[in-house]
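Contributing: when you submit paired examples, paste them exactly as shown. First protein:
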Amino acid sequence: MKNRRSRHETAVQGTNDSSIVSKHSMVTHGYFADHYLDEVVKQPCRRAPLINRGYYVRSLVIENVHKTFLQQYSGQLSQIVCLGAGYDTAFYRLFKAGLLAHCHYYEVDFDTVLSHKKSLIETSPLLSDCVSEVAKSEDDCTYKLIPCDLKEPEKLTALLSEAGIDWSVPTLLVSECVLTYLTSAQSAEVINWAGSHFANAVLAVYEQTHPSDPFGQVMLQHFRKQGSPIEVACSTPELHVERLLENSWPAACCHTALDCYQALVSKAELHRISSLEPFDEFEEWHMMAQHYVLASGYKGCCTEIPCFKNRCSRHYIAAPRTQKEKCTIRCFPVSSTASSSSNTTTFVERFAHSSVVTCDNAGSEALVVVGGFGVLPSQQRQ
């Protein structure tokens, strides 16, 4: 009989199956090119258009992170470490695109997950031929699977060292919706492990945020129903940055998935994906994209890599702190126009909106709010 930890790990591993099927659905509908997914998804399932679009931006963001890093260090030795890789196929896409010369690529996940992935590779001519090409390659590219639970950083250190990792070489570490299934202490330990072991590195973390607002509560309930509840999600993008800064990363920034989407998708590309399938859930899409972030930590020579910093219209940073202190948040009530027949003012709670504090010539502050939803008992309104 499985103990509680084993059941939890099985549920977390199950999110890999669900995620890869969702990616396959998105690819099948033409959002993103990745024919290698056909080799690892044996029971395809069509997802809703909203889910397809969510996985499209997720794939787009991670692809851009990979390419930004590889282009920065093209022609010199570099490393990529995929934490909680699951059945991810990014390695095959990047290798066939000729982007992994002089790059050592490591995938880390549970032993059971990588054992199954190894079987999938061995029984797929497309994947096994690619791995054979890597072995015969003269451009110093390697591909290694590292079976390890991320909750065991000392074991991970030993396995990576045994596999030939170089702790001083520029390294990209990617965590794609992985740390969120660990406890707060465990996720911080992984982040601190990465920041303290690699001298020159980028850590790219793609995961959820704003878990406490109405949409965030629905999001958490969804994962609970799947049997893999989210253990930790930073309340704001700024707190994602603080988590990195407090755990051995000297520089960090954060962008919402919506900001990344708007920075990466051209008008022509937007027109293309709009023609792929009927889609009218734009408000839900904007809310969902604001509830996922790319938080990036930098150190050593990799500090100069901007990723999205120079491409997004805004990015989140955390102000340096000289001591531990609680965040101070100024809250502004948003009032409707007072009725001519009443002196009362109605205050409206809002979420999934954009806002900015402005100041007039007299020094008076005003809060400008655009978009989003108001909340009333048991319902939402624009």
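Second protein:
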Amino acid sequence: HFIGICRRNSEFIIKRMNTGRVVALVFVLFSCSIALKNAERMSLKVPSVAKDHYFDSQIDHFNRLDNRVFQQRYWVNDTYWKPGQPILLAFAGEAPLDSFYGVSSGILSEMAAEVGGVLLYLEHRYYGQSFPIDDPKPENMQYLTTQQALSDGIALIRYWNNKYNTNSKVMVFGCSYSGMLASFFRTQYPHLAVAAVSGSAPLTAKANFPEYDATVKRVLNNYGCQSMVSSSFDQVHGSDRDSLRKSFNICEDDFTMDDLMFALAGFVMDAVQANNPDAGYPAQKLCNAFKGDQDAYKAFVKYIRKEGNLDNECLQTNMIPDLVKKGSDRSWYFQKCTEYGYFKTDSVNIFSNIPKDLEYFKNICYKAFGDGVFPDTSWTNYYFGGIDVESSNILYTNGLEDPWANLGMHQNASSSLPVYLYTGAHCAPFHKPTTMDPDNLLIARNAIRQFVYDHLNN
């Protein structure tokens, strides 16, 4: 694998270097020396399945009179590590730890090998197996805040250093919401983390977020099927309830059109957000579904049924039942309804007749967490700074076709706050490389490697 990286880097650099051949050659030799060293490292046995580890984390880090703790899960890859060598701390985001990249393969474990570091992957509180309080009533979720989550990172670093009587250099990582955590951690606690890699991070909290659908519309238009998707939603809105229930195998007898339209829109949004080479370009697959079929609506129904496995499962359109019980859906919506918003309104009119204002989402927040619960995103941005980053040693990446990039970094804030844009969607540099990766994605991925090496090998 690493020899392949060496070869691809060499071909990529030499092909594009019209001048400075000596510089290019030095960089190639440097890349290959790392590749050869890591080929030797990777011959060691690497755990194929992550083992669960737990440590005592305080329920409330900010109340010195509250000593309650809970068991917080994390994963470890210490194959290459010895006390005193670096810690690579990866934040998991709004899902169980099992849903993320793991510690035994991928770019994070490879970077741990390159610098002889330990990779720690921290599960976010109120997700997976890391619930401070099992009862999900609203008053028990008050400890689900970004500030508490960042402090969990501090707690794990301190726990690890104390366990091994070391004081290792730390670098933090994340993508999407966890990319926000990585950026915020370096900004808030520069004495604890020497640097951060923040991928696809929507740093700006925003309640009304129509820009998401605007990007979906642009991407589908580039692939040539935006008008067919929009006309399909028009036809959904004009169809009778019985035919819709049959077409989409809807679970509820009393479904609302608002709920159905958002449920169907989710399939389209997900295809665009995940439109990366390693996923086989799902947005392109969506548009390909319309080819060769004169009836766009029929093709749309067929696509939704296949993607949702609706021949075997019914389509749940009402999200409230999942938002009132313990689980990732409730936890993430709590964060949306109290801190971030990110409500995908459709002012660009790609999805016919779904709500174009915040009232629909306010009702969801009120039903799930109580009347009046809605995010003050201005406070969130004042506290964390949004894209007005006053820090250093943070590398950002964003996809030019990622709807979340509208709320992230688009240009270098300074020489020590570089931004790498690539043709692709959400978190692509963290995904498995493919032969279809565009050049600017290769550049972004190589930049991450160099950035990590520079900050952890000095």
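If you have annotations for the second protein, write them as plain sentences, like these:
Strands lie at 53-58, 69-77, 87-91, 118-122, 170-175, 195-199, 206-208, 341-343, 394-399, 419-422.
The first strand starts at residue 53 and ends at 58.
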